[in-house]
Design brief:
Layout (H helix, E strand, L loop, with lengths): L10 H12 L9 E3 L7 E2 L6 E9 L11 H18 L3 E11 L5 H18 L3 E8 L4 E9 L14 E5 L4 H10 L6 H8 L5 H7 L5 E5 L3 H12 L2 E5 H4 L2 H10 L3 H7 L5 E6 L9 E7 L4 E5 L5 E3 L14
Parallel strand pairs: 4-5, 9-12
Antiparallel strand pairs: 1-2, 3-6, 4-6, 7-10, 7-11, 8-10, 9-11, 12-13
Helix pairs in contact: 1-3, 2-3, 2-6, 4-5, 4-9
Length: about 325
C-alpha cells in the first residue's frame, strides 16, 4: 500500500520537516543510540556526572520577528541553552526542543526555525535528538541541553585572590539590539552578537581544572557576577578598561551610549565568566578583575584607581513593569 504524504501544515508534516533537517548526523554521535523519530531518545550511559539544563525563548519576550528571522530565533534559543553547559564545563551530549506554534505559523516558518536549531547544534557539536510540538497562542522554543562533566563547574567555588576572566564579548549584544530598535544597521558585529550569540563550549572545557567557579553572562555582567559573588560569599573588583573593547566603543558611539553601561548591564551576551588562580592566562580568556574578601557585590575600578559600587540591573522576568 502506498503511503500518502501528510497534509501541509499538519503536525505530521512538521515532524517530517524536523526529521529531514535534524535527523541527519545523529548516527554519527556515538552517545546517541536513538534520536528523532520514536517516542523518546536513547543515550548510551556515560562515566561522568550528567549535566542537564532547560531554557525557554518566548516571542515578544526573548525575540521579535521584526528584529530577527525565525532562523536566528531557532539558533539563538539553542545557543542560550547550550551556554549553560559551557558554564558548567560540560561537554554536550544532545539537545531536545519543545515548540509551541501559533496557528499562523507556516511550514516554511517551521523549516526556517529548525534550520537555525540545526546550525547551532552543529556548532556546539551535539545533535538535537527529540522534542515535542504543540499549538498555542504564542511562538515559543523550549530547549533542554544534556551534557557530562567529571567535576561540573559551579558558582560557589571562588575565593578571595582569584582572578576573574571572561571569554566572549560583553555589551555588544545589547548594542546590537538598540541599533536594531533604531533601525540602524551600521555595526554588523554588534547586530550579529545579538542575533547569533555563541555558547562558549570550548572555553568551558578549557577552564575545567583551572577555574574554581563559572557562570555564563545572560542577564548582564554585573548581575551575573553578582550571582557568583553571593554564591561564593566574596566580593569582586572589575577593571573598567578591560571591558572597553574597540568594537564595543564603536557601537556605543553610534548609539551615543556609555560603553561601560552596555558591558555591565546589557545581557544576552552568553560570554563565559570564570574565577580561579591564573584564569586570565587561559587561551581565549581576558582577565577583567579579581575576587576580594568582603561583602558580595561588584565594584568597578577606573583607570585612576577610583572604585564605584555597581548597581545590578540585569534582566528579571518578574520585575514590576516601569511606571
Amino acid at each position: 500500500m502506498s503511503r500518502h504524504a501528510p497534509t501541509p501544515g499538519s503536525e505530521f508534516a512538521r515532524i517530517e520537516i524536523i526529521q529531514r533537517l535534524l535527523g541527519e548526523g545523529v548516527a554519527s554521535s556515538e552517545q546517541v543510540l536513538l534520536g528523532i523519530g520514536d517516542d523518546a531518545a536513547a543515550l548510551a550511559p556515560v562515566d561522568e556526572p550528567l549535566v542537564w539544563t532547560i531554557d525557554s525563548a518566548v516571542e515578544g519576550i526573548h525575540f521579535r520577528r521584526d528584529l530577527m528571522t525565525l532562523e536566528d530565533a531557532g539558533y539563538r534559543a539553542t545557543m542560550a541553552a547550550a551556554s549553560d553547559l559551557a558554564a558548567m564545563g560540560a561537554r554536550p551530549l544532545g539537545l531536545l526542543a519543545a515548540l509551541i506554534l501559533p496557528r499562523e505559523v507556516s511550514d516554511a516558518d517551521v523549516e526556517a526555525l529548525v534550520r537555525g536549531q540545526r546550525a547551532a547544534c552543529d556548532e556546539v557539536g551535539a545533535p538535537l535528538i527529540g522534542g515535542n510540538l504543540a499549538r498555542g497562542m504564542e511562538l515559543s522554543i523550549t530547549t533542554t541541553a544534556l551534557g557530562a562533566a567529571a567535576s561540573p563547574l559551579r558558582r560557589d567555588g571562588a575565593r578571595a585572590g582569584d582572578e576573574l576572566a571572561i571569554a566572549g564579548p560583553v555589551g555588544l549584544s545589547a548594542a546590537g539590539l538598540r541599533l536594531l530598535l533604531q533601525q540602524n544597521p551600521a555595526h554588523e558585529e554588534a547586530i550579529l552578537a545579538f542575533r547569533r550569540p555563541r555558547a562558549r563550549i570550548a572555553a568551558g572545557l578549557t577552564a575545567r581544572g583551572v577555574a574554581r567557579a563559572a557562570i555564563d553572562v545572560s542577564d548582564g555582567l554585573a548581575s551575573d557576577l553578582g550571582h557568583l559573588t553571593r554564591a561564593s560569599r566574596i566580593g569582586a573588583e572589575v577593571q573598567a578598561s578591560a571591558l572597553l573593547t574597540p568594537a564595543l566603543q564603536e557601537a556605543a558611539a553610534l548609539l551615543d551610549a556609555d560603553p561601560l553601561e552596555l558591558a555591565l548591564q546589557g545581557g544576552e551576551d552568553y560570554a563565559l565568566l570564570v574565577a580561579g588562580p591564573g584564569v586570565g592566562a587561559l587561551p581565549g580568556f581576558t582577565r577583567i578583575g579579581r575576587c576580594v574578601a568582603g561583602e558580595p557585590g561588584v565594584v568597578l575600578v577606573d583607570a585612576e584607581g577610583r572604585s564605584t559600587k555597581i548597581v545590578e540591573r540585569g534582566f528579571d522576568h518578574f520585575a514590576p513593569d516601569p511606571s
